[in-house]
Specification:
It is built from 17 helices and 20 strands. With about 550 residues, it is α+β, with helices and mostly antiparallel strands. The strands form seven sheets. The protein has a four-stranded antiparallel beta sheet with strand order 7-14-13-8.
Amino acid sequence: MNPNNWLQPQIILLKDGTDTSQGKGQLVSNINACVAVVDSIRTTLGPRGMDKMVYDDKGNNTISNDGATILKLLDIVHPAAKTLVDIAKSQDSEVGDGTTTVTILAGEFLRESKQFVEDGVHPQNIIRSFRKAAEMAVSHVTDLCVSIEGKSPEEKSELLQKCAATTLSSKLVGGEKEFFAKMVVDAVSSLDPVLLDLKMIGIKKVTGGTMRDSFLVDGVAFKKTFSYAGFEQQPKAFDNPKILILNVELELKSERDNAEIRLSDPAQYQEIVDAEWNIIYQKLDACVATGAQVVLSRLAIGDLATQYFADRNIFCAGRVAEEDLNRICKATGGATQTTVSDLNQEILGSCTRFEEVQVGNERYNLFKGCPKAYTSTIVLRGGAEQFIEEAERSLHDAIMIVRRAMKNSAVVPGGGAIDMELSRYLRDQARNIAGKSQLFINAYAKALEVIPRQLCDNSGFDATDVLNKLRQKHATGQGKNYGVDVNTGGILDTYENFVWEPTVVKINALTAATEAACLILSIDETVRNPKSEGADNGAMNPGMMGKGGKGGGRGR
């Protein structure tokens, strides 16, 4: 008998309890998991998309139709499906909008490739073709885009409002999209045109009133801080005031309870008490001597200082949030001081108008007409707290879109028009490609049609009928700007009807979705390490550690 045919000893490479799955079945399982995640948010796409309500065990509930927000809150545990959460987050941080689009596209690319995988096609062939298709699609988007450079400021502002309105149309505040679009463009236009720093746009939320009660402050607004009795005697409005900004505590500090002071004469005790009062009065006198009419501090301003300033017709506010204080510094030209020993006119800020106004049940301090005002504040009103939270997320998306459009001033038609045109273009190009790649690029082209199809489904229209009309229109070569009309269920020229989106949104969505799909297709094995699970159990049950010198690292 040949000794080579004898039974070979089993080689154990992985720890007992390690879970491994590999091959075609594992790849299909990953695809199914990603498709399941996509199905959970696909109904939120477009102006007729539905909202999702997500609540946790602490009782916090969030109502949103923003793809990135929903995916973050879902707490997905499947390792492959987490990739979709990552691309939604990257789309949100990079361009601000299109988070649902990028997730749906990635899911559809995987859905189209699933049949090829089951038929035995090697995933690398699919990946190669998908990447080639993405390159062609991005190149064609660049050719189709329309630049808004060289327009007058009024025209450019109007074009940016169209982009913001397209973004807001799919949000909870879509009913007032023109109102908020103008507000968003005005807010972004107030920023430094070079930096366009989003931190310089403040959003304050006040419950009560209607959406139309929201307003934009060309400067800084912050909620009235905690104050003492003398506050009501202070003036609440100034024209052209000088503003002193401090990071100093203006409060009478008594000695510590356990401090020990040895006195030889009882009269010396009064001198110590007087010294404490003199310290605070010297600080207050130094503030008044600057001629400032508004005094703000990061730290507390006590009752003595409040009354002192009130007697001299000076407004003061202590415990101002650091973020608001920084924006006030940049807007008014003031500088934050950590001491009052060397105050002069150069460190004071100024604005055209300061006033305290009532907004709902809250009082807000407004600084308007700031000379260096590369900042603005949006005060949002609304009935329910969840509604205002979602309105803030919606405005964040619109602000990001307008900011991107100002930096990369090129737009493409929305409403599924660009997706249908790319699909037609890729089908035409695929005919010139020999081999299996033709099939894969056709599959990629078919996947792009998911956007107009989902827009129809979410609007309650027959997707098959609308897509056939769109295919016919785009095939003529004259209908490259035609997309879905979500109001009538027909098709229309979305560019002429001002349904626009910045080119960078579409390019980023295509590249991110393709990369995510290729990443998942390239995974052929998943290994779950029991060591980390055991370590978690050991951390949760410290009493289990040390028994027999063994920790929780054994495989189960």
